[in-house]
Known about the structure:
The chain has 149 residues and is mainly alpha-helical. The protein has helices at 4-17, 27-36, 44-52, 60-72, 77-85, 97-106, 113-122, 133-142; strands spanning 94-96, 130-132.
Amino acid sequence: MFEQSQIQEFKEAFTIMDQNRDGFIDKGDLRDTYAALGRLNVGSDELDEMMKEAPGPINFTIFLAMFGEKLKGTDPEETILNAFKIFDPEGKGVLRGDDIKYHLMSQADKFTEDEVNQMFTNFPLDVAGNLDYKNLCYVITHGEDKEQE
């Protein structure tokens, strides 16, 4: 299901999230992980919903299986690129930030302003206000920036 390098990355993520180092991720670990990422106002209900996604206590095996299930529905990179290319007829590999924001907030499963802003926080626009959708697609399907490899 996963390559060895991916399993190692998941193990590192699991270790970071297992704040109390007991071999399981629990509600307290999730709260601490969010706090470490700067989000201090995570509600108990939200954490409970996350914990309900697991079939039982979340050890590394369950963690890996959950990611496998989440990633199983991920489209191949080429499919995602082709979807973005509809908005990029000249094939530049970038889209104007204002245009992508408009389309995300007005089409199909509409994004909220907060969701768009979160996306732009994780995938900042360049100095010209453009989104590098080729890099975004790579990150979605491979989990890391091309430049970091």
